[in-house]
Amino acid sequence: MKTSYKVGSRNSQLAMIQTNWIVDRLRDLHPDFTFEIVGMSTMGDKILNVALPKIGEKSLFTKELEDALLVDEIDFVVHSLKDLPTQLPPELTIAAITEREDPRDAVMFNPKFKGCQLATLPPGSKIGTSSLRRIAQLKNRFPHLEFIDVRGNLNTRLRKLDDPEGPYSALILAAAGIGRMGWNDRIGQFLEREDCMHAVGQGALAVECASKNEEIIKLLGELVHPITYYCCIAERTFLRTLEGGCSVPVAVSSNLQLVDGNNKLCLQGSVWSLDGSKSIINELLVNLNNDEDLISSQETPGVIDMTSVSVCSFPGFKENAAEKCALLGKCLGNKLLQLGAKEILLEVRQSGAIKSVRNEETLNSLHLRDLRLTLLGTVSQNGYKELIVNPCRTFRRTKPPKVTRLLRAHPTMSENPGSTGPVDNDDKIFKPISGDESGQDVTEIESYCVNCGENVSLSSFGQLGNCCTGTISPP
Fold it and tell me: Start and end of every Porphobilinogen deaminase N-terminal domain (predicted)?
């Protein structure tokens, strides 16, 4: 049996606090085991000049850690559950969801507004948050306020708030994160459900590992908190049904209570327009002790998407309780879609608020530099972004609304190593960006599908979206 483990974590102070908390619990349970924490930086940590919803990725704070899991560099990863997409790579699973801390959002005020509430701030006061969910709800509740983006780790945000020359009258953050940082004394107001419903999974930690590693799944299963587990499965399935991500203005509130000997889970969900003027809000209740409640011939527990969460059972709950929670989330999501949520979400997506605005500079400085790639050029073709990189490296991407194709440039020996020539292929000219110092000529452009390895020629780009999942990478 394995007794030594490598634990992945983001490098931020909050992430390390959370990871150390998990490791301390495991050490208490297994004092003979050893745990090494491996820190990493993620895309969300690196892109600080763009609002989170506009980066256009669903794995902003998890992808690099998951990549390390997939190649066995680490054994498991600690996340804030709200950062985890509702669909993980099939090789990975959420093996533990820990007891939820306060799921509410909280307001930290600039010192000059100490003692204020959001309702009493002067008109036009600027409130820092990057969350479309918070902005939509609070615009509806407090129309006299202005909401502006704020990025960086929590220490950076607090410095921005306290800067006498800064623009922020207040910041809105997750109460759980503020508490873990030891800053509860800075909280000036908690936002109740009537003001701002929380994000899916907010306040809970999740531990992710390989889905086939039963030994680690069993180890991490000792950390699972039953009530939080069931509530978060319902919340995640609700979000999954709406096909939303952490950037979409979708909010929830859940509560599991023992009533007359029955475990009853109430899930409330909402979808908001960006300006807060339109919303769809509804709730459903399920009795986890009643085999018939919510179950229909079309929607049986065995076919419900568990949103990549390992199935657990606990004393006092029926074996199918997890599936019933997932069904609750699915039913509520479908109900909101029928009531008009689909149209609201379509408006949000078409507005560009959650569309990628990455430019060549961002791509070059973030992804390509990390992989020791040089961006030779970009070209737009039928609404698709095509990147030409050199030398050849694997570059894994998740599928965006429109396929982003990563092309590789085949280097060849050149009599003039200081030049990089354009390629004319099918009347498409791929020009290198200025200042390229790769010292290699671009002589051929090809693209490949990550999943099936098929070589896709330039002439067949129109069919690219039909190839497996449409995720494209050099081999």
Answer: 6-217
User: Are both 80 and 220 inside the same structural domain?
Assistant: yes
End-to-end CA distance of the chain: 36
CA 471 to chain centre: 18
Q: What is the mean pLDDT of residues 36-44?
A: 79
pLDDT at 120 over 80: yes
Distance of CA 73 to the CA centre of its chain: 22
Selected residue with higher pLDDT from 104 and 412: 104
| The token pair that represents 28 in the structure block | 């208490």
Task: Give the other-Cβ count within 10 Å of 6's Cβ.
Answer: 16
Token reading at 183: 């800053």
Question: Angle formed by the axes of helices 154-162 and 13-29, to 10°?
Answer: 140
As a 3-state breakdown, the chain gives helix, strand, coil percent values, each rounded to 5, of 30, 25, 45
pLDDT confidence of 291, banded at 50, 70, 90?
A: low
Could you give the CA distance from residue 7 to residue 286 in angstroms, rounded to a whole number?
36
> Up-side HSE of residue 459: CA atoms within 13 Å toward CB?
2
CA distances from 146 to 32, 36, 44, 129 (A): 53, 44, 24, 10
Number of domains present in the structure of the chain: 4
> Exposed (0-12), middle (13-18) or buried (19+): which is 316, by Cβ within 10 Å?
exposed
Residue 174: beta bridge partners?
Answer: 105
- H/E run at residue 38: strand 34-40
d(CA 113, CA 95): 43
Same domain, yes or no, for 86 and 125?
no
Q: Which DSSP symbol is given to 337?
A: I
Domain containing 298 — which CATH number? 3.30.160.40
Dihedral over Cα of 209, 214, 220, 226: its sign: positive
Contact (CB, 8 A) for 77 and 84: no
Q: Residue 92 in 3-state DSSP?
A: strand
Give catalytic residue positions.
83
81 & 220 share domain? yes
pLDDT tier at 201, thresholds 50, 70, 90: very high
> Coil, strand or helix: which one is 458?
helix
Tell me whether residue 117 is in a domain.
Answer: yes
> What is d(CA 141, CA 139) in angstroms, rounded to the nearest whole number?
5
Both 372 and 342 in one domain: the answer is no
Q: Residues with Cβ < 8 Å from 17, sequence gap 6 or more? A: 180, 181
Paired residues of 425 in beta bridges: 428
| Encoded tokens for 394 | 């694997």
Quick one: tokens of 88? Answer: 């993980």
Q: Is 136 in contact with 274 (CB distance < 8 Å)?
A: yes
- What is the sign of the dihedral through the CA atoms of 108, 112, 117 and 121? negative
Q: Rounded to an integer, what distance in angstroms lies between the CA atom of residue 384 and that of residue 154?
A: 35
